[in-house]
Amino acid sequence: MSAASARHRPAVTVDLAVFTVREGTFQILLVERGKEPFRGCWALPGGHLDAGEDLDAAAARELVEETGVALDCAHLEQMRAYGAPDRDPRGRVVTVCYLAFVPDAAAPVAGDDARSAAWMPVAPILDGATVLAFDHGRIVADAVDQARGKLESTTLATRFCPAEFTVSELRGVYEAIWGVPLDQANFSRKVTGTTGALAPTGGQSSTRHGGRPAALYRRGPATTLHPAILRPAQER
Amino acid sequence: MSAASARHRPAVTVDLAVFTVREGTFQILLVERGKEPFRGCWALPGGHLDAGEDLDAAAARELVEETGVALDCAHLEQMRAYGAPDRDPRGRVVTVCYLAFVPDAAAPVAGDDARSAAWMPVAPILDGATVLAFDHGRIVADAVDQARGKLESTTLATRFCPAEFTVSELRGVYEAIWGVPLDQANFSRKVTGTTGALAPTGGQSSTRHGGRPAALYRRGPATTLHPAILRPAQER
DNA sequence: GCAAAAGTGTTAGAATTACACCCATGC
DNA sequence: GCATGGGTGTAATTCTAACACTTTTGC
Lengths: 236, 236
Known about the structure:
Strand content of chain A: 25-35%
Largest sheet of chain A: 7 strands, mixed
Number of helices of chain A: 5
Largest interface: A-B, 49 and 47 residues
Oligomer: homodimer
Mean pLDDT of chain A: 91
Order of helices and strands of chain A: EEEEHEEEHHHHEE
Structural class of chain A: alpha+beta
Low-confidence stretches of chain A: 1-6
Number of strands of chain A: 9
Radius of gyration of chain A: 19 Å
Distance between the termini of chain A: 35 Å
């Protein structure tokens, strides 16, 4: 690890895969590129590392800039770095990609350089119907994979819910992200039975078109889920 | 994601956390630094990214240089990037850290810049008895954590074994890495019962000081373990 | 009342755990 | 023979999955 020799210096950027669940579908925040290359294409939000700024800090800054969500409502973690030499036609760029989970409330804001931003369902990106700029299609596929896996063993699905939510809303998050139906009764028992996962508020949900009102919960202190919720059958 | 503007260019390095199991203990490959800063301290092997080289390729190159193992015997995967602004006193360095699992056979080779290399048990690093250069102590802790978790749901433990091995040898790998004893009978049934995990060679192990000879196996095609082998009790 | 959604009961099957016991070898 | 380690048997317990049933609401 010899260090600051200037012989080869890629640019370093931080990109964000910001996910939410809206209208029952798993969606990701994308920005429309305002300049070449890939002008007019959709891409992941991101930007350069500032001098003296930690990677995590840069990701947090970008997240707030792009979504306006408060950091304590969201989950942010590093996923992995991408550094293929030809991934950016302008030159060598190594990007460190972060995964963010935010509640539906987050409104995307147009970037400072006049790009537009929008929530887009992940499905057409995964199946190739929507093509993203750079290697971002591949990055999104990796990020979706990682996000799906995280739901099994962590309580991070609650990050997609508002401050108070019902067990059914939480189950809806799992179903949207995994794309499979889950048994309501078993799901409910599992999440309410895991100590520290959910904290009952005592309140009841207002029922819309009939049906028994559901109990309301907040996120609990636990971050891991024991035992895990395994998604049925299909491979990783 | 505006790219090749030269405004702030950290150096990018690739570091390796190369693990093996030797003499019943979980060990990591370290190099002794030959120059300042941290001269004489132990550090992770690694180096700069070459021009036009992918991150994965750089990691693979370093692995072969440092251990001499053939790539197809080893497992190599990216772990995460570290980029705290003060992590290297010489200037801004972002490092992408890789995890490698190699069989005991791998002999560390002294680096080209006259550093010595050695296998060291991870325990004294985790408990703080051995202090590493830079933030490498923290990186090793993260890498050990990740490695321990990987054993639960993947067949990667076989990467620490020679080409042919017994179930007991494989169990020894788990016990060394997790630091807990496992039930021999149940472990054996689980790994031999998972289709595709192990392929019997038909051969038998030579028995050293008595005892029934054990069947020999090779790595099978499967990479994931279903159901997983959960380590007992203690938290992640 | 009736539909809809929440929550509880129940049961068969699978997995996990902790052992007891037999087998094959070196000495 | 006897110690040593490999492999199989088995029973208690827990987890999972599927589905029936009861409760509480809006209309």
